[in-house]
Design goal:
Number of strands of chain A: 0
Distance between the termini of chain A: 70 Å
Order of helices and strands of chain A: HH
Oligomer: heterodimer
Helix content of chain A: over 70%
Distance between the termini of chain B: 49 Å
Number of helices of chain A: 2
Helix content of chain B: 40-55%
Number of domains of chain A: 1
Largest sheet of chain B: 7 strands, mixed
Strand content of chain A: under 5%
Largest interface: A-B, 26 and 29 residues
Radius of gyration of chain B: 33 Å
Chain lengths: 59, 796
């Protein structure tokens, strides 16, 4: 049953790693603007297609 | 020609045909140009995301000359390493997904722009650019030319940027993390199963909990200790005193139990307690990203003006460096930052941000000009007579009200209660401990700590944040934005309401046009309307819209617009002149009225008089409020409207006219000295003093995204007639809070029974404490929502 030490230890360490990553992301500002990214993802594709067309026409 | 055709760019109704590109109609040359610029750079997608997303670009020639000055640029730039710069610009016109799209693709316009990121809720764009390729001035002028004019104000230069604090979020996260994990690791203890392996490893679980609680007690809970300490220092037993006592008792008791192998301790209850308490704090802190309740004239004033040297040389100078006697140049769309004397040029000044009056005021050379007006036409020169901080308007801010960062002291209900609460709890703890000392001395300390633990007023402390936080949120969703939750409590104590007149109870959008002063035949009305159609002046638009006759079928010729004076044109040999009294060489005998004069073939026909309309429902608003509150109308204008107001408002309403900004402040003060609690409702910078002095100051705004003076709340003008309902709901919320206090006391009594009788086990604590908190939170949330639904539409 000594394995309990390992399993609990591992689970606590994993939990702490996730928690630290979460805190770091707050600090990086990932949660400062929760609205704009939701719109931005909608028009990424079209913008890329446009640049491609532009490159073609330049050739 | 058809009306109801929207401009392809901005959606404005238009019947112009001259601005057309590839079967797309535009209302003006500006919109057309933006379309062409975007098309040229293959950014036509702009128009795919939203219909008519654009805004009309403003003419900004020379306006940003001050960005040539290195000093000013250095203050605006966020980062500058000599080649790459980062700037964050506030652009009020950001409003839709097309805006985000075009602003994030700025790099396609210019090689120098490397990256741009929009923060939509804050209406800000952060641009990284190469200094050598594009200067800040060019950048600003470019984004202005496509309709996104950034707002760069005096405030950006003089005030240091406050970093956003995430501390509370960190604290809640730590408490939540600890709460969840400790709960999980405590499970074996809850069931008291006599099992060999659990018994063997129980210390592993206990010591893990022991470690995990440390950041909670020594970091997450620090606010409570500090607040309790500050309270005690000023001899005030605030709610944080019993909370801190409870936390300390819980912690010491648990540490003792674990170290001496007595029991599992109350780590789970402690973590849960702090998690709920901190959650309440988060809930109470509703911030409206796009609103600011702290703005003063600084965020409205420009950074620099054009200084005119004696030799005619022009120089951009920061406004705090302007000295008395300097000559400055004010261009179209620029703001007058100082008081001065007009020297030469044409001035049409819009003081709507100051007084709420939207009709522009004309100034001639020799006239005194006050700071705060926005030039609407042409260019003029003025001599400075007061420095920025000393002007008629800004000296208001040197008043004490603005000096000290006065925390308007609102005595919260919960603090009144906690005074007695703490005393009672401590005496019960002492009495119970003394009793047990004689009966079973080993249990005395156990009982003493148990009382402190179980009476820790978690539920009590959660009632106010959750009730007020929820009401704050509901109000915000209905366009009544309050600075913080304690304003709701302050609203319940109000007994006097003071209204500003212009812009607050009158509206700038609907004007009342009176044609009593004019006699025109049917044909003549048509002629006048046809001429008016060509003008974009606000007065012309207002008169145009009031005429119901169709426009003349004949075309207009020789149309000329004289800036600041009027318009003229001829239709079928009829020569029509419309404009100010001066333009038509006549005298206006009644000065406190805005008039538009009309002459046909040099024969003066009369005038249209234009009045600001009162907002819808104002009469009913006053009628509803008058039984419960003392009402006052406090106006900076003359008594011209007195007669009309007397007919609208209840008889006991006080009408006060001719008040300067500083008088308004003193007026509010004099009421407060009589022991009144004053709610001030105003809109312009001239009300800023009164708004700050009053117990609750609320700014009315037609568009909450534009400037409002510092206040405790901002209300959308369209719902101002709902004010009685908001006040009523605030009062009902207070009743809910009082009921909830009773409930939380009942929980405490139950808890006390277990504590005093020496039966408080960790399991009971782990059930009772979260249960009381959660049930109270649910009760206040449901009850406040219920009250909103019941009362928000009720006719009082």
């Amino acid at each position: 049953m000594e394995v309990v030490y390992i399993t609990i230890g591992v689970s606590v360490i994993i939990a702490i790693i996730f928690f630290v990553v979460f805190l770091m992301n707050i600090k990086k500002g990932q949660y400062d603007d929760t609205y704009t990214p939701s719109i931005r993802m909608l028009f990424d594709d079209e913008a890329k297609k446009d640049t491609k067309n532009k490159e073609k026409s330049n050739k | 020609m058809e009306r109801n055709v929207g401009c392809f760019h901005c959606g404005l109704e238009t019947n112009e045909t001259q601005y057309t590109v590839a079967d797309k109609i535009f209302c003006c040359n500006g919109c057309k140009t933006v379309f062409e610029i975007l098309n040229q750079h293959e950014l036509g997608c702009y128009y795919d995301y939203e219909r008519s997303p654009g805004t009309i670009p403003k003419e900004v020639k020379n306006k940003y000359n001050y960005l040539d000055s290195e000093d000013i640029v250095a203050k605006i730039l966020e980062f500058d390493d000599g080649t790459t710069c980062v700037v964050e610009l506030y652009i009020p016109t950001i409003h839709c997904s097309s805006c985000i799209w075009v602003l994030e693709n700025l790099d396609r316009f210019n090689q120098g722009i490397k990256k741009s990121t929009v923060n939509f809720p804050l209406k800000k764009v952060r641009i990284t650019f190469k200094k050598a390729t594009i200067s800040l001035k060019e950048l600003v002028e470019f984004i202005t030319s496509i309709g996104y004019e950034p707002q760069i104000s005096y405030d950006d230069v003089v005030s240091a940027k406050k970093p956003v604090s995430n501390t509370l979020i960190y604290k809640v996260s730590i408490a939540a993390f600890a709460f969840g994990n400790i709960m999980l690791l405590s499970f074996p203890e809850y069931f008291e199963i006599e099992e060999f392996w659990l018994e063997e490893y129980k210390n592993v679980f206990r010591y893990l909990n022991f470690v995990m609680i440390l950041p909670v007690v020594f970091y997450a809970a620090t606010d409570y200790y500090i607040s309790a300490y500050n309270g005690l220092k000023s001899k005030l037993l605030n709610i944080d005193v019993p909370i801190s006592l409870g936390i300390v008792a819980l912690y010491l008791r648990s540490v003792y139990e674990v170290l001496f192998d007595v029991g599992a301790g109350y780590f789970d209850s402690l973590a849960g307690l702090l998690f709920f308490l901190l959650l309440g704090k988060v809930f109470q802190q509703k911030t409206y990203n796009y609103l600011s309740f702290e703005r003063d004239f600084k965020s409205y004033f420009p950074i620099a003006v054009t200084l005119l040297h004696k030799n005619g040389h022009e120089e951009s100078k920061q406004i705090q460096d302007i000295k008395i006697g300097d000559r400055i140049l004010i261009r179209n769309e620029e703001l007058v930052p100082v008081d001065g004397i007009m020297i030469q040029g044409d001035a049409m000044l819009d003081y709507s941000f100051v007084t709420g009056e939207s009709n522009p005021i004309e100034k001639k050379s020799g006239d005194k000009i006050f700071a705060g007006g926005k030039q609407l036409s042409g260019i003029f020169e003025m001599e400075v007579i007061h420095e920025v901080s000393q002007s008629y308007l800004t000296q208001l801010w040197s008043n004490d009200v603005f000096q000290k960062n006065i925390h308007k002291s609102i005595k919260m209900h919960v603090d009144t209660i906690s005074k007695y609460f703490t005393a009672v709890v401590l005496s019960i703890a002492v009495i119970a401990a003394t009793y047990w000392f004689f009966v079973d001395s080993s249990k005395a300390v156990f009982v003493f700590t148990a009382v402190l633990i179980i009476t820790c007023p978690c539920a009590l402390a959660l009632v106010t944040p959750f009730a007020l936080g929820n009401v704050l949120r509901i109000f915000g969703n209905n366009r009544f934005y309050l600075k913080n939750a304690s304003v709701i409590e302050a609203l319940t104590k109000i007994d006097t309401i003071i209204f500003d007149k212009t812009g607050t109870i009158t509206t700038n959008h609907q004007k009342e046009i009176n044609d009593a002063g004019i006699a025109l035949t049917q044909d003549e009305i048509q002629l006048v309307k046809t001429v008016l159609r060509n003008s974009n002046h606000p007065l012309s638009r207002a008169v145009y819209e009031s005429i119901s006759e169709p426009i003349s079928t004949h075309a207009i010729q020789n149309y000329i617009e004289h800036v600041g004076l009027g318009i003229e044109g001829s239709i079928e040999n009829n020569f029509i002149k419309i404009g100010s009294a001066k333009f038509l060489n006549t005298q206006q005998n009644k000065l406190n009225e805005t008039r538009v004069y009309v002459a046909i073939n040099n024969d003066l026909k009369g005038y249209f008089s234009i009045k600001n309309n009162y907002r819808n429902g104002i009469e009913r608003l006053f009628k509803q409020l008058s039984p419960k509150y003392d009402l006052v109308i406090l106006s900076g204008d003359n008594e011209g409207e007195k007669e009309r107001l007397l007919q609208m408002v209840p008889l006991n309403t006080a009408l006060i006219f001719n008040k300067k900004p500083i008088d308004k402040l003193n007026f509010v003060k004099s009421y407060q000295e009589q022991g009144k609690n004053v709610l001030m409702i105003g809109d312009g910078l001239n009300d800023a003093g009164a708004l700050a002095q009053s117990n609750v100051g609320i700014a009315v705004s037609d568009d909450v995204n534009v400037f409002t003076p510092a206040s405790d709340g901002i209300v959308d003008a369209s719902i101002i007639n709902k004010l009685p309902n908001f006040l009523n709901i605030s009062n009902k919320t207070l009743t809910i809070i009082k009921f909830s206090f009773v409930f939380s006391f009942l929980y405490n009594v139950i808890g006390l029974y277990f504590a005093v009788s020496g039966q408080l086990t960790p399991l009971i604590a782990a059930i009772l404490m979260p249960l009381s908190s959660i049930s109270i939170v649910i009760y206040v949330t449901v009850a406040t929502n219920f009250i909103w639904n019941k009362y928000h539409n009720k006719q009082l």
